[in-house]
Amino acid sequence: MSTKALLRRFDAWRAEGRTLVLATVVDTAGSTYTKAGHRILIADSGDYQGLVSGGCLEGDLASHAREVIASGEARLITYDLRGGNDELFGLGIGCDGLLRILLQRLSPEGDYEPFTRMAHIQRGDTPCHCAVLLADRGEFRTGDTLFDAVNPADGSSQADVLYTTLRPLPRLLVLGAGPDATPVVTLADLLGWRITVVDHRPAYLDRPAFAIADGRVCAPADTLAKQVTLALFAAAIVMSHHLATDRSYLAALAPSAIPYIGLLGPPGRRDRLLRELGDAAGALGDRLHGPAGLDIGADSPESIALSILGEIHAMTRHS
Q: Per DSSP, what are the bridge partners of residue 100?
C-alpha cells in the first residue's frame, strides 16, 4: 500500500477529526515484511492504512494503538518471531524475524504532528532528513521528531534515534492520452506515483480514468518544456502513437535530466525517430528505453502497462 494512499487516508481521517496513531518500524532483524522507516496509520476505530506485516500483526498493533491514544504516551512494541517465538504471542505467523515498532498519537489538538509535516514534505519536491527519538532523553521524550536532522545512515537506529530520509512522492509524465494510457495511469497511481498526463487533444484528456491524475495538460507537443517543469519528474513515457508528436516529445526530453524515458513501439520505429532527431538523439543516451518495458510477453494494454511500470519501478528503486 503506497505512501500516496497513506496520505489520502490521512486527509480523510483528519477531515473527520479522528485521533490516529502513527506506527513506524524502527528496527528489524531476520526476515520481515517491512524495514526500518516504514510507516502506517491506525485510526481510533482500529482501522488501519498500510501494512507492517502481511496483515498478521496489524490487529495486535491496533490494540496497542488504543492504549497509546488513551495515554497519549508514545510506546515501543517488539515482535520477536524468530525461532517459533510467534507462538508465544498467540499469532502463529510462522515468520522468522524481529520488528520494533514505535507508536505515536496524532491528535486534532496537536494538529496531527509530526505526520502533518511529514505529509507536507512527501507532497513537495525536496527530500528532508528526519530523526525520531526512541527513548526519553533529558527534556526530550520518546517519539519527539526533528526535521532537517543530520542523517548518518538512512533507515538506521543509532543511540536510540531512528534516522530516515523523507522523500517526495515520485512524479511520472505520461505523454499521450490514448486508450492504452488508461492502465498506465491506473497502475502508476496504485504504486504511489504522482502522474501528469499531456496531450494536445482535449477529448482524450477528458477520459474518466484520468481523473486520478495529479495534473492534465492540454498543449501542443512542441511546447512541452514550457508547459511542464521537466526537472521534477523521475520518469516519462512517450506514447502518443504519432511519429511527429513523439519526435517533439523526445526532442523536449533530450536536454532534461529525467533518468527514465520510455518509448512505445517497435525497434524500427525507435530507430527512425532517433535518426530524425539528429544530434539531439545523443543526449537521450541510455535513459531511453524503447521498446519500453520488461520482456514479460505483454500482449494487452494492461500487461504492457505492467511491463513498463515494472521496469520503471526496478530502475528507480535501484538508482
A: 27, 78
CA-atom Rg of the chain in angstroms: 23
Question: pLDDT tens digits, residue range 196-254?
Answer: 999 999 999 999 999 999 999 999 999 999 999 999 999 999 999 999 999 999 999 99
Neighbouring CB atoms inside 10 A of 114's CB total 19
Exposed, middle or buried: residue 31 (CB in 10 Å: 0-12, 13-18, 19+)?
Answer: exposed
- pLDDT confidence of 34, banded at 50, 70, 90? confident
Cell of 313: 519501478
d(CA 224, CA 99): 47
pLDDT of 86 above 80: no
Of 253, 229, 231, which Cα lies nearest the Cα of 240? 253
Picking from 130, 132, 32, 9, the residue whose alpha carbon sits closest to that of residue 78 is: 32
DSSP state of 143: T
The helix (run of H) or strand (run of E) holding residue 105 is: strand 96-106
Report the alpha-carbon distance of residue 314 to residue 138 in Å, rounded.
43
Cell of 81: 518471531
The domains of the chain, with CATH numbers, are 3-166 (no CATH), 171-317 (3.40.50.720)
Measured between alpha carbons, how far is residue 103 from residues 4, 39, 49, 132, 267 in Å? 21, 10, 14, 11, 52
Name the DSSP letter for residue 140. B
Strand 215-218 relative to strand 161-166, pairing: unpaired
Question: What DSSP designation does 212 have?
Answer: G
